[in-house]
Amino acid sequence: MFNPQSKTAAAAIFTAGLLLLGYTTYDASQKAILNERPMTAEQQDALRQHIQSLRKTPSKEEGLERQLE
Questions:
Q1: pTM for this one?
Q2: What are the distances in angstroms from CA 34 to CA 24, 28, 30, 44?
């Protein structure tokens, strides 16, 4: 593992680790807060249309099978 040569280097590594842990915690918290909001009607319609378009679009393999028939 990393072996710092001075107490200053050790303190810098420790501080960087605390900052990384703090930022990760903050970011996860913000994402959780944003996910608590319900979808709007427009977002639900857009998602429903996207899912329907994916179901209607044949896959490449199905297209090749139809061409071979």
A1: 0.49
A2: 15, 10, 6, 16
If one compares 61 and 45, the residue with the highest pLDDT of the two is: 45
Q: What is the mean pLDDT of the chain?
A: 83
> Counting every residue, how long is the chain?
69
Give, as one character, the DSSP assignment of residue 37: S
Tokens matching residue 23? 């930022």
Q: Which residue has the tokens 């050790």?
A: 10
Domain residue extents for the chain: 7-37, 39-69
Residue 67 has φ and ψ, to the nearest 5°, of -70, -35
38's torsion region: left (phi>0), alpha (psi -120 to 50) or beta? beta
DSSP state of 57: S
